[in-house]
Amino acid sequence: MKRIGILGGTFDPPHHGHLIMAEYARNDLDLDEVWFIPSHVPPHKQGAKVAGEDRLRMVQKAVESNPYFQASDVELTRKGTSYTVDTMKYLKDQFPENEFYFIIGGDMVEHLPQWHKIDELQNLVQFVGVKRSGYRWNPEIPVHFVEIPLIEISSSNIRERLFSGNSVRYLVPDSVYHFIKEHKLYGAES
Ligand SMILES: Nc1ncnc2c1ncn2[C@@H]1O[C@H](COP(=O)(O)OP(=O)(O)OP(=O)(O)O)[C@@H](O)[C@H]1O
Ligand SMILES: O=C(O)c1ccc[n+]([C@@H]2O[C@H](COP(=O)([O-])O)[C@@H](O)[C@H]2O)c1
Known about the structure:
The chain is an alpha/beta fold. The protein has helices spanning about 15-30, 50-65, 75-80, 85-95, 120, 155-165, 175-180, and strands at about 5-10, 35-40, 70, 100-105, 125-130, 145.
């Protein structure tokens, strides 16, 4: 039996906030691995700005130096809207012996009751929430709380900075920074 953390996201692009939350969750909950899963179409937000293939490549680059982390293409391969319950049903089927911990930013905790088939999902995972601006705990759904330094980094802010010609160096891992520049993503100059 392994304890697996799942960090689902749009990763448009991945940034240091994602890596720090995953590492703190791994540490605090004694997880064996954390799997990063880029969504094909995120359920509750507008579509991603860059293709799934590029987001997966950036996630692979972001996690490659951490032996506990890996990227999974399970949602990109499935296509359609990436409901977490479908992903977790599939993973539980593939790896019935594993225990899954789904890691989210604290800002999402109060919206958990509205997630697709949340009752079913609650039987498949335990939720882990990390501190983020705007977080409020919803007592309806049990969530393990993981204290992390408050990190004011978001993919949307990174996209805005790139679009307006500002630097995003050190907000993202160097490998991701170079990938964005090389592929001129988000309006970035090379
Ligand atoms: N700085 C952060 N601190 C804590 N949680 C975060 C942080 N950034 C992202 N998360 C969480 O990581 C998960 C995946 O996030 P996502 O890929 O959507 O990035 P994002 O920065 O929230 O994107 P956007 O700004 O485009 O909404 C979500 O659960 C989100 O709440
Ligand atoms: O399944 C749902 O109803 C659902 C609703 C909102 C968010 N999620 C998942 O939560 C993760 C983070 O979402 P996001 O929008 O910040 O990329 C990602 O894996 C989403 O698929 C899932």
